[in-house]
Amino acid sequence: MRDALAIVGGGPAGMMAAIRAAETLGDGRRVVLFDKNERLGRKIYLTGKGRCNLTNRRPWEEFAAHLYPDKGFLRFAFRAFSNEALIRFFEEELGVPTVTQQGQRVYPASLVAGDVARALEHRVQALGVDVRYGSAVGSLDELSDFGAVIIATGGKSYPVTGSTGDGYRFAREAGHTVTTVFPSETALLPKDYDPGLPGLEMKNVGLQLYIDRTLVESEQGDFNFTNDGLESGIAYHLSRRAVWALYNGQRVDIVLDLKPALSEEQLVNRMKRTEQAGGFRIREHFSASGTKTRAAESVSSTLEVYRLLPKSLIAPFLRANPDLTIENLPERLKHWTFRIVDYKGFERAVVTAGGVSLKEIVPKTMASRLRPGLYFCGEVLDLDGDTGGYNLQIAFSTGALAGVNAAKYLLSL
């Protein structure tokens, strides 16, 4: 089978590689796609909360700012198969209309992830690719008869979909360096996590990440309190650096700003204006407070009357700030600190950070610098992005580039 190409992994990167390789070769039968599952693209069904955030429409300069650890590595693959090219591919070639939503996020118009996975699988089958369902590859040696090999096995996130880190073993067999892999876009668990917080959704708030008491990153937007901690949205954006810091034994704190649009001074003035309008007599009510309990009642009433917090958040906020007073309330609303002590592992992480060293991969082709005929693409690489469609674009762009170049290599033999 020296005239055939083997692709290991039938996720987004692997399917895109198979499609482009089959088109380049002009004979899909020369492409053999191995996947552990009984259907391709199993992880796609889970992406974007079942809606599949295909890509992000931001131009390259803005897009690249959301990539880690080497923002420039994807440049060639992105130019060869950009976000706009991907949208055209789905709409014009696969017949999957798309819709662009907040934050330039692109989804299938149906908002059904299965439509994306099935369209890709149908194209793979229509091109005549030899798909070996339920086939696990144990080592690179098993593929020695093939003229070229593409590793598209994904990382370690969501292992139930078959992403169990096999690609790292294959890479090491070929002499490649695999950087430390760790969960990214995952839940961050605070110390003494208040049981009243899970289930609450935070809208338009600010989060600041402190590592060893130094501010390193800030985000503004939405996130959720879940049973596992701070999760989704802007919490995911901070999780990569937070997890890495915890992994290295550093102190991690996240500060929640409940009123990012207002300064402390503006909050004070807002409270004074409401008081002057007769909405609530802060000073009279507070001066009558003789105990901590009465003081807390006063602050609680203030929060509710001024609509400074949703009712469901008031009790956890008061418990987190037992020394709260009317005077320090504005400062506390903008600096609710959570000491992060743990994170959710690969079983819940959306993305795997780390992987096959980019220094050993040719960015213009996705070819191994160490072994001719070997290519890598997708999440197995030490390349990941924020939530918002960046990671799927990485998979599609690198998969397309690997497929074309592996096929060209095969034709040159």
Would you mind describing this structure in some detail?
- 35% of the residues lie in helices and 21% in strands.
- A 6-stranded antiparallel beta sheet has the order 10-15-14-11-12-13. A 5-stranded parallel beta sheet has the order 7-2-1-8-19, with helices on both faces.
- The two termini are 12 Å apart.
- It folds into 3 domains: 245 residues, FAD/NAD(P)-binding domain (3-Layer(bba) Sandwich), CATH 3.50.50.60; 68 residues, no CATH class; 74 residues, no CATH class.
- The chain has 413 residues and is of the alpha+beta class.
- The longest helix has 23 residues.
- It is built from 13 helices and 20 strands.
- The chain is elongated, with a radius of gyration of 25 Å.
* Biggest sheet record: 6 strands, antiparallel
The helix/strand class is alpha+beta
Q: Biggest sheet: strands side by side, in what order?
A: 10-15-14-11-12-13
Q: State the oligomer.
A: single chain
CATH homologous superfamily of the largest domain?
Answer: FAD/NAD(P)-binding domain
Q: What is the approximate shape? A: elongated
- Number of separate strands: 20
Mean pLDDT: 91
Total domain units: 3
**What gap, in angstroms, lies between the N and C termini?**
12 Å
Count of helical regions: 13
Strand content: 15-25%
CATH architecture of the largest domain: 3-Layer(bba) Sandwich
CATH class of the largest domain: Alpha Beta
In the predicted model, the low-confidence regions spanning at least 5 consecutive residues are 277-296
What do we call the CATH topology of the largest domain?
A: FAD/NAD(P)-binding domain
